[in-house]
Amino acid sequence: IAKMETREGAAAAADGVLDLSRLSLSAFDVDGVSEERRRDTRQLYLNHNRVASLPSSVSLFSNLEFLDLSSNGLTALCDGVARLARLRTLIAKNNRLDESSLPKEFGSLRLEVLNLSGNRFEEIPLQCTKLLHLQSLSLGGNRLRSIPAEVEHLTRLELLYLGGNLISAIPPELANLPNLSYLVLCDNRIQSIPPQLTRMHSLRSLSLHNNLLTYLPREILSLVHLHELSLRGNPLVVRFVKEMTYDPPSLLELAGRTIKSRNIPYYPCDLPANLLRYLDLASKCPNPKCAGVYFDSCVRHIKFVDFCGKYRLPLMHYLCSPQCTSPCSSNPQSDAESEDESSVPAYRLQRVLLG
């Protein structure tokens, strides 16, 4: 308590700041702080101590906007934290928190910044997905295996940091975050990128280094504001993979291909509704020399595209049959001169980090 009083007096000159960091505190005595000081404190620093639990009376800091609890021994956040109505930034990294450590009403806070990196979370608590004012969420260096679909509720999110976990897949729901600019998924176990990410029009930086990616979907070229793409430490950087996988088309698909490729006219009154919907799902073969289409059966093909005149990256596209190959495929340099590359302005993907 003497240490607290000494630091409190020193901090009094700093308007609204109570700095109790690095005092080797084993407990936080709220009663040791005057009522006036509690009322005036906007920022509270308790980081780098030995505080194992926080008293519920922390809610007496009624005007608190910023709370740093990093590098303590916390195993739970008390209910009092959920009653800090003015709290906007909570930093509790490098503790012992897990998905059962957050109070039930945590999701009612109006937090804008939440950092829970370096803890023991195996899943993202659903309370976090209810923080509808959140702009920055960091859960790096935990034990996360997945990203819940409910993350799409965080529509104000601008930064999502999930590096250093055990995540194996990117949910397509991430594409429903209209303001996400910085997405960090490095040092995980991700094997593919869902094409839905093409809808993330605000994305400026995508960190995917040290994962298990063997290719990128061609839809990534649609990320018009993407300026930084980090890919080092993925199989696609150290060894390129070409695979030809093909399932023979069904009679239904063969009939649909014939109708579409030969432009055979048909009218809604001629066909059942399910067949009409099926015909609407036809995808045109990306080979400009091929007029074919495909529905479900197609050839997965790797095509190398030059993003910025320096790096040739493998993008995934689909061909209608094994007989349909990319034009001039015998020339290993030709794919870099494809229509994909010419459609990408020079200012796009300014930094592709491979090494």
Any overview of this molecule?
- This protein starts with a helix and ends with a strand.
- The strands form three sheets. Strands 1-2-3-4-5-6-7-8-9-11-16 form an eleven-stranded parallel beta sheet. Strands 10-15-14 form a three-stranded mixed beta sheet, with no helix packed on it.
- The longest helix is centred in the last third of the chain and has 11 residues, at 251-261.
- The protein is built from seven helices and 16 strands.
- With 355 residues, it is α/β, with parallel strands linked by helices.
- It folds into two domains: 17-242, Ribonuclease Inhibitor (Leucine-rich repeat, LRR (right-handed beta-alpha superhelix), Alpha-Beta Horseshoe); 246-295, no CATH class.
- It holds the Pfam family LRR_1.
How do the helices and strands line up, and which of them pair or pack?
Blueprint: H1 2-11, E1 17-19, H2 35-40, E2 43-45, E3 66-68, H3 79-82, E4 89-91, E5 113-115, E6 136-138, E7 159-161, E8 182-184, E9 205-207, E10 216-217, E11 228-230, H4 235-238, H5 251-261, H6 273-280, E12 283-284, E13 293-294, E14 299-306, E15 312-319, H7 339-342, E16 351-353
Parallel strand pairs: 1-2, 2-3, 3-4, 4-5, 5-6, 6-7, 7-8, 8-9, 9-11, 10-15, 11-16
Antiparallel strand pairs: 12-13, 14-15
Organism: Tetraodon nigroviridis (Spotted green pufferfish)
InterPro entries: Leu-rich_rpt, Leu-rich_rpt_typical-subtyp, LRR_dom_sf, LRR_domain-containing
Protein name: Leucine rich repeat containing 58
